[in-house]
Amino acid sequence: MNKKMNIICSMAIALIAAQPVVMAQTAEKVNVVCNDLVQRGDSVYIDALVTVPADAVKSSHYLELTPVFSTASQKTELPSILINGKSRQKLYNRMIALNNLKNDAPHYAVVTAEKGKGLQIPYKTAVGYQDWMKDAQLTLNPDNCGCGLKSAGDPLLVSNKIRRRPDQRYLVAPTYAYISPEAETVKNRAEVGEAYLDFQVGKYQILQNFRNNASELNKIDKTINTITTDKNVTAKGVELKGFASPEGSYKSNATLSDNRVKALRDYVAQKHEFANSFFRLSTVPEDWDGFKAKLEADDQCPSRDAVMAIINGSNDPDQKEAALRKLDGGAAYRYVLQNIFPSLRRSEYKVDYTVRFFTVEEGREVIKTHPQQLSLSEMYAVANSYQVGSEDYNNVFETAVRMFSNDPVANLNAANIAMSKGDMSSASKYLAKAGNSPQAINARGVYNMMQGNLDEAGKLLREAESQGVKEATANLKELQKKIDDNALFDSYK
Fold it and tell me: What is the distance between the alpha carbons of residues 209 and 236, in angstroms, rounded to a whole number?
């Protein structure tokens, strides 16, 4: 009881002297049930029920019950419950009437014990939360007088800890379902490139030292040499496609482009000792599609919209060129002749080859230097030769999706790796191309679970489970843990 109650104690000495004092066992008769002790935000909320039996407080005595938060080094008291016996309550009321309790600390409740009647006192309040309270217990400390008389008993434990929102949210631990790719029966590969050869006007002979031809021919030679000198591959053919720009008559351009691509074939055949039958030739006498694409990326061309309309028109190529020459006094034609047409004159080349199959040990080395030579199934075998989740393991799958960028299996496995690393942006891109296999459905369920879209995650994971994906069953258990965690967090709002 507050020190200001000393007045009451003094007035009560005569009464107490004639009565036996409240013994320590008084507190043993009191029962307290903690319904909840919880931190929400900046406050701690207490919900308890204190039961005091009928014989716990004599008529001339009182029992004060003070809730106390405490640790080994800190404590704070809450407003107490004051239970007065019948005679003591009269004295208490008299002191209030005389205004002798004006400075007394407020009580949570002041109640009168009546003979033969027990008391049930709900204790519901909130106090400001402090960091030290996370390790505090709440006790109910009994006292029968604040004037030096014997305590009514040992503290009653209300709760040994505050129910607090966990410091961290539950982090799901997904289980990923990988797919072993189907083996290739033949590993067909190709190297491709473009060469911009310069020819004399109206000529088709290749002059190796003319303008930048030496450098452009070297690009082709280098590509072919990387294949013919590699013991692991076998060249199967060369495809050459010649493109010409739209100036001049279509007929003459057709003849000229045909002769020029044949000249390139003759150069490559002689240089690398290939038979003519090793080649496939094709031409685009006037590359109007390329012209359109270049114009779309060029906002400096005069009369650009009118030029685009000519390109998209239904006239034959020669009529289109004539219209271009007339447009805007020839300004547009002069511009495209100088800035666009030169980039259309090119040769595309593709060298087809096959690659032998590799053992896992060989694959470990080949993937470092020539990953394009491995099949997807070989890469999968290499990945599984490393510890799951290791850097080497992850790198193989990331390499696989670079080499097979549109393959659903490669994208699925790469999505799993990305999610395991927390790279949700990459995972999203891979999942878009991962197909609709049961394993891909599981992966999309995992993605949604990790992104907090739990309803969608549950739908997808149940679908994957129904299609026999055992990993989905494990993920549904993780999903439930996350749902429970969210519910727990929400309960602290």
Answer: 30
| Whole-number Cα distances in Å, 347 to 235, 243, 264 | 20, 6, 9
Q: Which of 74, 78, 67 is nearest to 130 (CA)?
A: 74
Radius of gyration of the chain (CA): 44
Do 271 and 399 lie in a common domain?
A: no
Pairing label, strands 81-84, 187-195? unpaired
Q: Which amino acid is at 410?
A: A
58 plus 205 within the same structural domain: no
d(CA 381, CA 393): 10
Please identify, among 159, 179, 198, the residue that sits at the C-terminal boundary of a domain: 159
CA 363 to chain centre: 32
3-state helix, strand, coil in the chain (%, to 5): 45, 20, 35
Q: Are 327 and 307 in contact (CB under 8 A)?
A: yes
What is the per-residue pLDDT across 80-131, written as a single tens digit (0 to 9) for each?
999 999 999 999 898 888 887 766 778 999 999 988 899 999 999 999 999 9
Q: Is residue 41 within 8 Å of 491, Cβ to Cβ?
A: no
What letter does residue 80 receive in the DSSP assignment? P
Task: Tell me the C-alpha distance between 2 and 421, whole Å.
Answer: 60
For residue 481, give its domain range.
Answer: 375-490
Assigned domain for 363 exists: no
Say if 366 falls within a structural domain.
no
Q: Where are the alpha helices (DSSP H) in 40-142?
A: 86-97
Say which CATH number the domain at 221 has. Answer: 3.30.1330.60
Q: What is d(CA 457, CA 480) in angstroms, rounded to the nearest whole number?
A: 11
Q: Report yes or no on 359 lying in a domain.
A: no
CA distance 220 to 231: 20
- pLDDT tens digits along 300-328: 999 999 999 999 999 999 999 999 999 99
Tally the domains of the chain.
3
